[in-house]
Amino acid sequence: MEIKLSAPITKEKLAALKAGDRVLLTGTVYTARDQAHKRICEALTRGEDAPFELEGAIIYYVGPSPAPPGRPIGSAGPTTSYRMDPYAPALLDLGQAAMIGKGPRNEEVKKAIVRNGAVYFAAIGGAAALISKSVKSAEVIAYDDLGAEAVRRLEVEDMPLIVAIDSRGCDLYERD
Amino acid sequence: MRELDVKEITEAIAGLSKETNVSLSEDVKSRICMMRMKETDEGAKSILETIEKNIKIAGEEDIPLCQDTGLACVFLDIGQDVHLVGGSLKDAVNEGVRRGYTEGYLRKSVVTDPIRRGNTGDNTPARIIYDIVPGDKVTITFAPKGFGSENMSRIAMLPPAAGEEGVKDFIVDAVRQAGGNPCPPVVVGVGIGSTFDGAALMAKKALLLPLDEHHEDPYYAAMEDELLERINKLGVGPQGFGGDTTAIGLRINTAPTHIAGMPVAVNINCHVARHKSVTL
Ligand code: SF4
């Protein structure tokens, strides 16, 4: 059974999700991976704003392939999340609601998830052609010079996800 | 002496860049299918089904299997009776990558400098491995390598006293530690022997070997099977969420080494195990 989850993503909606749940997400998602996280955090340290509203934001760790003619985006599967671990807690504390990536997270991130009632979703690594079909539009909104690593605003419809770490800290990577 | 214009190599590589990124070889696909049928965990089975669906969509719609279209690894087996004409071989290879990745809407994932970063914008340079072989042909093997799995690769300079068990434990442990990071189910390439760099290159080349064949030495052939079985008992499972399918294949390359050493390298690839060869 898949749970339909639509924007806006409230803390109440997130609290209802349990690790292992399959979710179909519809709404706005922002892309950011290694270099974009570095720049966002540097901007915040300088007292500047992030390139999008962090409160309630869902960040997808992805560097899509270029969009061929007639498509909003190229293939768009998740990148490995642990590389974003150094940045994630600060962003969650500033209101980020959820992350989408793949692979386990460290203790710091898990604590920040619980502290803020956030959720970590996993998308299936390598299923990038399939995932791209749920992306209805994509627009670069910051750091264009980073190419694949630029920050994009995506509108997604029924994006297939798995709850990897829920708001209580239950972690699907540590099931036994 | 046979002459071969390097422009033909450029053409071939441009074509291979696109082909390898949208479709997988039969041995890889049949292993995924076989493992899905044997999988006893429902969640794991459904992830494997999604992976198979992805392969189908990529093929039908002619789009990359994965957004990480890799660092271009190009293996050139150059016949010693071939005379390459028409310019620099290295430039010809990189031109092929540049064209293939630009015209094929593939992701440019290469940075100029490892520390200071900065995207090169065209996915060059390729990592080129040259081997001189008998004959008058050139065989090109193109293998785009994703770094989610590359980052989980390991090497150890084991003491000879570690013996067979030490080698096997190191290999299994590398896959265990990689966990859900390298997009399991993975393909494991192992290099045992040679030097530090030699073991690593053998491991990378092991990722090019067919998954439905074995090492020619029965001792290592049995080890391939045993290791695959041990790895699939780890319970990592597809995407690291548990199950019987942690690896779809494991191949070993071996070479003589020094009396004081026993190098072992483990190169991890994801289920998007891309490679294809052409002979010119
Ligand atoms: S490890 Fe493989 S499947 Fe995963 S993102 Fe990288 S290339 Fe794609």
Question: What is the mean predicted local confidence, pLDDT of chain A?
Answer: 95
Distance between termini of chain B? 15 Å
Largest sheet of chain A: 5 strands, mixed, barrel
User: DSSP strand (E) fraction of chain B?
Assistant: 25-35%
Mean pLDDT of chain B: 97
Low-pLDDT residue intervals, each spanning 5 or more residues of chain B: none
Order of helices and strands of chain A: EHEHEHEHEHEE
Q: Percent helix among the residues of chain B?
A: 25-40%
Largest sheet, spatial ordering of strands of chain A = 2-3-4-5-7
Which quaternary structure do these chains form? heterodimer
Q: Compute the CA-based radius of gyration of chain A.
A: 15 Å
Name given to the CATH architecture of chain A: Alpha-Beta Barrel
Secondary-structure class of chain A:
alpha/beta
Give the helices and strands of chain B as they follow along the chain.
Answer: EHHHEEHEEEEHEHEHHEEE
Q: Tell me the number of structural domains of chain A.
A: 1
Give a verbal description of the structure.
The complex is a heterodimer of chains A (176) and B (280). Chain A is α/β, with parallel strands linked by helices and 176 residues long. Chain A has a single domain (2-174), classed as Alpha-Beta Barrel (fumarase). Chain A is built from five helices and seven strands. Chain A has a five-stranded mixed β-barrel. Chain B is an alpha/beta fold and 280 residues long. Chain B has two domains: 2-20 and 65-145, no CATH class; 148-273, no CATH class. Chain B is built from eight helices and twelve strands. In chain B, the strands form four sheets. Chain B has a four-stranded mixed β-sheet. A four-stranded mixed β-sheet of chain B has the order 8-11-9-10. In chain B, strands 1-3 form a two-stranded parallel sheet. In chain B, helix 2 (26-38) packs antiparallel against helix 3 (42-61). Chain B is globular. Iron/sulfur cluster sits between chains B (66, 68, 146, 148-149, 182-183, 270, 272) and A (77, 125-126).
